[in-house]
Design brief:
Helix content of chain A: under 10%
Structural class of chain A: mainly beta
Distance between the termini of chain A: 41 Å
Order of helices and strands of chain A: EEEEEEEEEEEE
Distance between the termini of chain B: 36 Å
Order of helices and strands of chain B: EEEEEEEEEEE
Structural class of chain B: mainly beta
Shape of chain A: globular
Number of strands of chain B: 11
Number of helices of chain B: 0
Oligomer: heterodimer
Largest sheet of chain A: 6 strands, mixed
Largest sheet of chain B: 7 strands, mixed
Strand content of chain B: over 45%
Strand content of chain A: over 45%
Chain lengths: 115, 112
């Protein structure tokens, strides 16, 4: 079974600073990888996803993530954080089964942005 | 275009009571999902429906039942609520099983 680890429960960065959120996965084959963001009291919104091809993936709101097979990682980055980026971020993995994909989520990283 | 809607937004139940959480999507998606979110545990899949007429168990199905009423609607039923089912419940849908999942705003459930 697949699993996802987000080692950082809580991260604080200053507005304008760069950001990297870590995600490691465990899966026997090439997985499908996702990053979702959840603002307080809201549902989840997809930031970006990786299915195949270029290992550097661009998403919405200026986020990007890089798939590194050798490290089983899919870290999320942003060059300059804005105060509105404060939220909880979830990495997720899904196997390709040909039928309904079962997303497995990490436990989340809460991002705080100081002004 | 409302996307994924969930009702109710909040609910308080007593142990042993039953209730149904409703979910509807207007994006003509084939796949629908129910998750629960608990502090420090991320989201866990309860049940999913790959297409109209089919449902399958996810990671934590015990204590729940689902009905895919039609292509638009996917309900989650708690027959006899327990305090361990206190959680935030999210419904999601996707065009196909491999496509992006779109989430509803959630239902916050408290079981006393």
């Amino acid at each position: 079974a697949q699993s996802v680890t987000q080692p950082d429960i809580h991260i604080t960065v200053s507005e304008g600073a760069s950001l990297e959120l870590r995600c490691n996965y465990s899966y026997g084959a090439t997985p499908y990888l996702f990053w979702y963001v959840q603002s307080p009291g809201q549902g989840l919104q997809l930031l970006l996803k990786y299915f195949s091809g270029d290992t550097l993936v661009q998403g919405i709101k200026g986020f990007e993530a890089e798939f590194k097979r050798s490290q089983s990682s899919f870290n999320l980055r942003k060059p300059s954080v804005h105060w509105s980026d404060a939220a909880e971020y979830f990495c997720a993995v899904a196997p390709y089964t040909g039928t309904a994909s079962k997303l497995t989520f990490g436990t989340g990283t809460r991002l705080q942005v100081t002004l | 275009n409302a996307g994924v809607t969930q009702t109710p937004k909040f609910q308080v139940l007593k142990t042993g009571q039953s209730m149904t959480l409703q979910c509807a999507q207007d994006m003509n998606h084939n796949s629908m999902y129910w998750y629960r979110q608990d502090p420090g545990m991320g989201l866990r899949l309860i049940y999913y429906s790959a297409s109209e007429g089919t449902t399958d168990k996810g990671e934590v199905p015990n204590g729940y039942n689902v009905s895919r009423l039609n292509k638009r609607e996917f309900s989650l039923r708690l027959e006899s609520a327990a305090p361990s089912q206190t959680s935030v419940y999210f419904c999601a849908s996707g065009k196909t099983s491999l496509e992006t999942q779109y989430f509803g705003p959630g239902t916050r459930l408290l079981v006393l």
